[in-house]
């Protein structure tokens, strides 16, 4: 993670600025998940392989980092459902309607996956319940990037167990490998007849080094290595290449100079079609660099830091519509603000579990929500929850657009309700 801090404006100033932003989605009748060809005017739609007008959609989200409080929640949810172990389905259910609609869902698996019954560990060497992988698949993800600063937390055994688990759940993966042959083979997925490659790199491994005799274990950021990975994917038949990159400085909403410089070099000197950034644990902007969309950081998809900052509970799902036009790929970018509900600590918040008036109840469980949808069906929300969700939406939107991406068409996928 490599990012410089953003200036936090007052709520009143931010709100005023947001009112001036163009929020209309211009999406077609099928709801928020519009047909990208409808705006192109070519009327071709998604035709047979090789025909003009092919299209597909990608949903990509931020870091998945399972802290002990989330493991405890998954255990409670499993017990409530009448079975043992850990069940993350209810925690992540709020984003399933978005992720499952995409033609390709891309997750970022930051920690090492352990054994079903533990033991588990938290920072600095994460080892988390493998049941999270089943939920990721259930939500609608197809593939995960696995190159992060925690990839080598438990050495080769950790890498192997993580990838074995993803395989068992039917999730593709890239960024780490179990042997040289696996590392040498590009990950290419068939998405509506289009060959889409994903590559994944991380800035470092928390002081650990990839063993010299096992250079295939994890991908370290280097421009030449990124460019070479793209070329290898193209040679293997990839028509689209998506880069997942773990970079930046933690908890800093502005991209750092190294991020900006590398993004510009990638856009100028490679043919990579989309850059998806992770690691900061807070939302960072999107920007169209040349003709390439760069999501510098999508925040947390799911995490529960020991000291939540307010920003660490906020995240974004990037939504990207790819449309083939005159032999090239055009990409339209959208985003979906998310928020992780964190229940108050009953020891430090007397009366936190006291019933509220009417049907509304205080937050009692860790739940990931699609902010716009939660506010659209808000009859069970307390006034303070509504206010917090609106703040999350508006702050995420302001961050996403603060490098001028509105001029290139960046919008929320779903409007904030009146």
Question: What's the short version?
Answer:
The chain is an alpha/beta fold and 418 residues long.
Features:
alpha/beta, 418 residues, 11 helices, 26% helix, nine-stranded mixed β-sheet, globular, disordered N terminus, six-stranded mixed β-sheet
Structure description:
With about 425 residues, this protein is α/β, with parallel strands linked by helices. It is globular. About 50% of the residues are buried. Helix content is about 25%, strand content about 25%. It has helices at about 10-20, 70-80, 90, 95-100, 130-140, 155-170, 180-185, 225-235, 255-270, 370-375, 385-400, and strands at about 5, 55-65, 105-110, 110-115, 125-130, 145, 170-175, 185-190, 195-200, 240-245, 255, 275-280, 285-290, 290-295, 300, 315-325, 330-340, 365-370, 410. Strands 2, 3, 6, 7, 15, 16, 17, 18 and 19 form a nine-stranded mixed sheet that branches. It contains eleven helices and 19 strands. The longest helix has 18 residues, at about 385-400.
Helix/strand layout:
Blueprint: E1 3-4, H1 11-19, E2 55-64, H2 68-80, H3 89-92, H4 96-99, E3 104-109, E4 112-113, E5 127-128, H5 131-139, E6 143-145, H6 155-168, E7 172-174, H7 180-184, E8 187-191, E9 194-202, H8 223-235, E10 240-246, E11 254-255, H9 257-269, E12 274-278, E13 286-289, E14 292-295, E15 300-302, E16 314-325, E17 328-341, E18 367-370, H10 371-376, H11 383-400, E19 411-412
